[in-house]
Specification:
The protein has 226 residues and is mainly α. The chain contains 11 helices and no strands. The termini are far apart.
């Protein structure tokens, strides 16, 4: 990877990217409140299950397809995969999360890569922009290799989950870093799964997570927006 592409990848995967990812736990806060996640071992089990059963089988494959669609400048494919992702958000919190983060990143793209008019037009044609669509557009606009961008997306998601555990289980900083390091092989495997699943194999079937999200909407005390 060229140095510029690597730096762009680090920028997109950075927790300081101003899209608000730190303010969402994606159901993890409710899992902690219910006692399902209460120490390093249970935190790792939760993250690995989420990674293997949901992210690697739906969010990451859709991001992979969106990257390919933006690279080919295929407007219909961008619109179809965007609509599918939005339709998959089965709680108000999950939908609001992806639309808010997508909106924030889309605004950044117009500032970071203003010269790719065709790509920006494709992005702006979407009535609502979920985060995977914006991330795919940023990947192509900044010329980050697709496979590297996918790994960056997965690592960024895992890091955000670990940080939520560090703050709220709570785990110590060393425990959090040990947990993040232990996820390396799982993240690599998730990237392979995301690249190789056929369209009819995609699935985000996770009724338990949906219920946790809906319960979080009315949770009395909370730190996160999802």
């Amino acid at each position: 990877m060229q140095s510029a592409s690597l730096l762009h990848l680090l920028q997109l995967a950075s927790p300081s990217l101003p899209v608000g990812a730190y303010s969402y736990s994606q159901g993890l806060e409710t899992a902690m409140a219910r006692g399902f996640v209460h120490d390093e071992h249970s935190a790792r089990a939760w993250i690995v299950d989420m990674l293997n059963e949901i992210v690697a089988r739906f969010e990451a494959p859709l991001t992979w397809r969106l990257i390919q669609a933006f690279e080919a400048r295929e407007a219909d494919a961008v619109a179809d995969w965007t609509a599918m992702f939005l339709a998959s958000r089965d709680s108000a919190e999950f939908r609001a999360e992806t639309v808010q983060m997508g909106y924030s990143l889309a605004k950044l793209i117009s500032e970071l890569a203003p010269d790719d008019k065709v790509l920006l037009t494709l992005l702006q044609q979407q009535a609502e922009i979920p985060f995977p669509t914006a991330l795919a557009a940023a990947t192509v606009a900044l010329r980050v290799p697709a496979e590297s961008a996918l790994l960056g997306m997965l690592f960024s998601w895992a890091e955000n989950q670990v940080l939520a555990c560090v703050k709220s289980v709570p785990l110590g900083q060393v425990s959090g870093q040990r947990l993040l390091l232990s996820l390396t092989e799982a993240i690599e495997a998730a990237a392979v799964t995301a690249r190789t699943l056929a369209d009819d194999e995609l699935s985000n079937w996770s009724p338990g997570l949906s219920l946790l999200s809906m319960q979080h909407e009315v949770q009395y005390s909370r730190l996160y927006r999802s």
